[in-house]
Amino acid sequence: MSEIRAERNNGMEPSPAHARMTHFLWQQLPYIIALVLAVAGVAYTNASHQPLVGYWEFLALAIGVVCVINKWPEVDGKEARWRLIWTQALHWVAVLVTMNIMLVSGVQQLLPTPATSLVLLTLLALGTFLAGVSLLSPQIAFLGLAMGVTVPAISWLQQSIIFFLLGAVLLIGLGITFWLRQDRSPGSSPTDTGSQMEA
């Protein structure tokens, strides 16, 4: 009986590699969430054609908090921690001010709403990348790069969606044509051969 329990316990315990992978994913979770929220904000803006001003400001502040939390354990001393807080605060206030300049009504009239969301995402990506460089944090710098890469990817998808739709229609049309030809070809259908034998 005790051997069966020991075997069950051994089967239920995670392997060290699995535990390391889970720990690694748990550490990367804030960066993954920030990237998903940034892409979701652009997608929602493109679908609704309404700018999400507060959303981008919240996201910038959240990434600023993540920057401070990421570097906090590596900073020793009260003075160094205060320096970390106020330098990151100045950095993200500059990003927020730049974002709000893009949302001024005079500038807003020059850009359509989807373009505004892409510009705000670009500013957020630049701010995140520069914060990662100044903090010597590869995760934050990579998050900024990933956000920056999504900007041309989203605009490319918007421009090429018509080509994707035309390609899908073409493939469906070709598929239907070949399927109908296969049904009509002589000798392929047993009903055709039966009717020929009766004649």
Automatic annotation (TrEMBL):
Transmembrane segments: 29-47, 53-72, 84-103, 162-180
Keywords, comma-separated and alphabetical: Membrane, Transmembrane, Transmembrane helix
Superkingdom assignment: Bacteria
Keyword Transmembrane: yes
Name of the molecule in the record: SPW repeat-containing protein
Species name: Bradyrhizobium barranii
